[in-house]
Every structure is written in C-alpha cells, then in structure tokens.
Specification:
The complex is a heterodimer of chains A (129) and B (386).
Chain A: H1 3-8, H2 10-15, E1 17-21, E2 27-28, E3 43-47, E4 51-60, E5 73-80, E6 85-90, E7 103-113, E8 120-128
Antiparallel strand pairs in A: 1-2, 1-3, 4-5, 4-7, 5-6, 7-8
Chain B: E1 4-11, H1 22-37, E2 44-48, H2 52-56, H3 61-68, E3 76-79, H4 85-98, E4 104-111, H5 118-126, H6 141-156, H7 160-174, H8 188-192, E5 196-198, E6 201-202, E7 212-220, H9 221-227, E8 233-242, H10 257-270, E9 279-281, H11 287-296, H12 305-310, H13 327-331, H14 335-351, E10 364-371, E11 376-384
Parallel strand pairs in B: 2-3, 2-4, 9-10
Antiparallel strand pairs in B: 1-7, 1-8, 4-7, 5-6, 8-11, 10-11
The chains are: A mainly beta (129), B alpha/beta (386).
Chain lengths: 129, 386
C-alpha cells in the first residue's frame, strides 16, 4: 500500500471524521462530495459516535496476505450510536462469546504494516464497551 | 432495438489448469463458440475479466485476446465489474447487436487464478470490496458473506443445515456436468465438518478458486435463422444494477437490492416474471448467496430461501431448478468467466443438449450474476423459439 494512499485517509482513521449533509443530516463516512440521499453538496465535518453495537460479525480463519499472522480474528459490521455503520475488527474479546447486539467502543490501534520495513498502518478497532 | 440470438457457445473443462496461459483459456473457449456458431468473422469482441493484473500480471486483455484469436483488428474491449465482469460483458455485447452497431459479437469471460499463492488470491478478490474501508481492516470475501449469513440466520432463523443443503444440491448437479471443476457429490455432514473459513461459513460453503473461460457468439435473429445450426435461442431481457460498494453502507445487510433491480429491468424487457422461468443459473459464490438470490428474485418470500432449499424447491426436479450446471460451487468460479458460463449453460439447456442434468422441456431461463457483496448485478432472460 503506497504511503499517500494511507496518508489521505488519516482524518477518518485517526480522528473518525465524517461529513454531515447540511441539508438532510445524512452522515457520510468516509466523507463524500455529494449526498447519496438528497444530492446536496455541502457537508459539515463531524466526529463519529465512539460507541455502538454489533450488527453482524464473523471470525476470519483464512486471511489476506497482510493479515495471515493475525488469524483467527473477529470482524464485524458495527452500528454506531449516530446510525453510521462501519466494518472493523473487534479485539480483546473471547471469540466464542461474541454475539449480535454486543455493545462496543472504538479504539485507536495498529491495523497492519507495509511489509517488513514499511509504514505501520493505524486505524480504529472495537473493544467491548 | 433488434432481437439478439445466442448462436454459439463454448466452454473448456474448468479446474487448476497449470499448463494453460490466460490467453489459451480464452482462445480455447472462443474457438469452441465460433465453431459451434459456424462463423469465423466477428464485428467486435468483449473480454470479461476481473483481476488479471493482480492474478497473472497482465492487463490489456482486449487486444491480447483479439491478437491470439487471430481477429485483430476488430474492436476488442475488456469489461471489469468484479465477479459480474462476465455478465456485464454479455450485456455490452447484447447492447451492441441490439443497437444495430454490429451484427456478430463474441463475448468471452476468463480468469486465471491458480498462478499465485492463496493469500495473494484472497487479496486480489478482496479488492472487489471497498479497499479503504473494508479491505484495509482485514476483511475477506468469505468474511463479508459470512457476516451476511449470520445476519440472515439471526433475522430469519436460517439454519446451518439449510446453508449446507445449497452445496449438497449444487454438487449433486455438478456431478452430472463433465466441465465442472469438482464433479462429485457431497453430504450435509461433509459440508458441515469441512474446514472453517469465516464463521459460520466453511470451505464447502465457498465456491473454489478456478482457472477457466467461457464464450458465446451473439448475432441478429436473421443471421441465426440463416445459419440454422441450432434451435433459436434469444436473449429477451437484460438488466443491470448497482448498489453501495461497502456492505456496511446498506440499511439491510440481508437484501440484494441490485439483483432485485436488475431482475425487474430484465423481466420488464422480456415481459415475464422471474417465477415464469423454467431454470435459473445464479451466483452462488457462497451458499448464503444462493439463498439470498432466491429471495431477491422473488422466487420465495423474504427470509424463506433456506427452508425452500431444504424442501427441494430448487433441486433439478423441483419447481424452480437452480444451478443445474453445479453452480459456482461445483462447476468452479473463475470470476470473470462465470457470468458468461451461466449463458452457456442456459443455451445448452434450452437447446435440449444438457444430457444428464437436462431440465425437461425448458423454454425460458434466467441468469443472475453479481460482483462484490452485490454492489453490481446483472440478470438476463433467455428463451428458445419452438
């Protein structure tokens, strides 16, 4: 993954910045240039809610190359308390105890790294709330 | 708009085809289709392919395949829409003939997936999801469909055994398909004790990694009648739709909106409903996908895909035979070829040439192909003139 591609996403991955449509209130994460609901083009920067609940989840046991050392790990679609849904890992949990509806909280964690000596990528993961 | 006929079909035996290059796979299938049609001149050609750049380090497939098929300088266009690349390529060929721009168009799909290691293949396939907001976090395609499966199970009570029933049924059919990658039968127990890939999906819930190609020749109905080599099979409806690239951006994680929309468009054109088709080739990339497609096509009520499968509704002798070919599960899933191979199967069935897996008296077939977690979908209706 090239550095610029990672750097561009830092406001979202480090500060959880989303765009709130000033016309209809739709919260776009990541931010968009045009609102998919009302087609307005003006957004206000807001921060995502830092808690939510698990809508659905899985435990990945066969991983893509960058995550092969991490298996097994839990991935979930999380519905944040502001209504925004995100995909992320759920960590610091017993994988056998996870269930739909569990409350979780966002945390800043290491995600992966670009090879042996490359940039370390950080972002959000979720832990039990 | 002009009527469009499928005058030639071709497909090689799929599998781990180490001695074959990607160009060989495409050209073999294309030659079979051209010979089947009895034509050697085409006006243009399409190549459906998802990820040759990552999988074999080769892009620019349109020109490559035209060159190796001996058809240069015809216009040759590669079409990419993840696992729907084949279906979208077919639609482009259909539009080109229907519009009057061309009279004979070759549409092929191809993927060469076994040249690299498993982790790299998993990565290449994962690029069909939102790379920055799904892939970045380590999700895989089995993982995304596993999350859809778990949501479906939680909401509708779909069971682990009902998921397995899809794989058992498709292998039952695939065992009768000489071109299938895995032409063997399996059992509920065999599926439910296979290696866990992404809970609750196991290895036998997943379509395999496959090398393969498929091709069809499309033409005007006048030309088909002049050639008169096969019963006249026409594409009477074509639909395509899109949805959010990220699964998490959908209000309902258990609903394939793009498939519903594409089916509506295709059926309006063909003046029929999905339920009026005699057989169905659908995108069972994972067992849960077939269950969700049955619902999106309206063959069963929302949430009833699992019980309907267990009751035999979609078996070869059932009311709605689904994936007589063996589906992606048993036939194989060379991603760019899949959407075209579905048309090969429907045409063969409608001609009455499908042998042991023939759906008796089939007059109308429906093909549904999708990319990603359903971010793109195509539906085509084929009918045979009696």
């Amino acid at each position: 993954m090239i550095t610029a591609r990672y750097w561009r996403e830092m406001p979202q991955r480090y500060r959880y910045e989303a765009g709130k449509c000033v016309k209809c209130g739709y919260v776009a994460f990541p931010p968009r240039l045009i609102c998919p609901v009302c087609k307005a083009r003006e957004f206000q920067t807001v921060t995502l809610a830092n808690t939510g609940k698990i809508e659905t989840f899985t435990v990945i046991r066969v991983a893509p190359s960058d995550f092969e050392d991490e298996v097994p790990y839990a991935m979930a679609v999380i519905k944040l308390d502001d209504g925004v849904q995100v995909t992320a890992q759920v960590v610091d949990v017993d994988l056998d105890e996870l269930k739909i509806g569990d409350r979780v909280r966002i945390e800043f964690r290491r995600i992966s790294q670009d090879g042996e000596a490359g940039v370390i990528f950080y972002g959000y993961k979720f832990v039990p709330a | 708009m002009r009527d469009v006929a499928v005058i030639g079909i071709g497909m090689n035996k799929w599998g781990e085809l180490w001695p074959s290059r990607i160009r060989d796979l495409y050209v073999e299938a294309a030659l079979l289709a051209l010979d089947d049609a009895g034509v050697d001149k085409i006006d243009s050609m399409y190549v459906g392919c998802m990820s040759s750049g990552l999988l074999v380090g080769q892009e620019h497939l349109g020109a490559l395949m035209a060159d190796y098929l001996g058809q240069a300088p015809v216009p040759a266009t590669r079409v990419e829409s993840a696992c729907a690349s084949g279906g979208v390529a077919l639609r482009q060929g259909f539009i080109e003939v229907a519009s009057g721009m061309s009279d004979v168009v070759l549409v092929g799909g191809v993927e060469k997936m076994t040249d690299i290691d498993g982790g790299s293949t998993t990565y290449a396939l994962a690029t069909a999801a939102d790379q920055e907001y799904e892939g970045f976090h380590g999700v895989t395609f089995p993982g995304l469909y596993a999350m859809m499966a778990r949501a479906h199970m939680a909401r509708y009570g779909t069971t682990r055994e009902q998921l397995a029933q899809v794989a058992v049924k498709n292998h039952e059919n695939g065992a009768k398909n000489p071109r299938a990658q895995f032409p063997f039968t399996t059992t509920l127990e065999g599926v439910m004790t296979s290696t866990m890939v992404a809970d609750p999906l196991r290895l036998m819930d997943c379509s395999p990694v496959t090398d393969g190609a498929a091709a069809v020749v499309l033409s005007t109905v006048e030309m088909a009648k002049k050639l008169k080599r096969h019963p006249l099979v026409k594409i009477t409806g074509s639909g395509q739709a899109s949805a959010s690239i990220a699964l998490h951006a959908r209000a309902d994680l258990t609903w394939l909106g793009s498939t519903e929309a594409a089916a509506k468009t295709a059926c309006k054109m063909a003046r029929c409903t999905p339920r009026e088709a005699d057989l169905f080739e659908v995108h069972d990339c994972f067992t849960i996908a077939e269950i969700m497609v049955l619902e999106a096509l309206g063959l069963v009520e929302k949430g009833k895909g699992g019980p309907a499968t267990a009751a035999g509704l979609t078996a070869l002798g059932g009311e709605f035979p689904v994936n007589a070919s063996g589906g992606l599960k048993a036939k194989g899933h060379p991603v760019g070829a899949t959407g075209v191979a579905q048309i090969v199967e429907l045409a063969e069935q409608l001609r009455g040439d499908a042998g042991a897996r023939q759906v008796k008296g089939a007059k109308r077939g429906l093909a549904q192909n999708m990319g990603g977690t359903g971010a793109s979908a195509t539906v085509h209706i084929l009918e045979v003139e009696s």
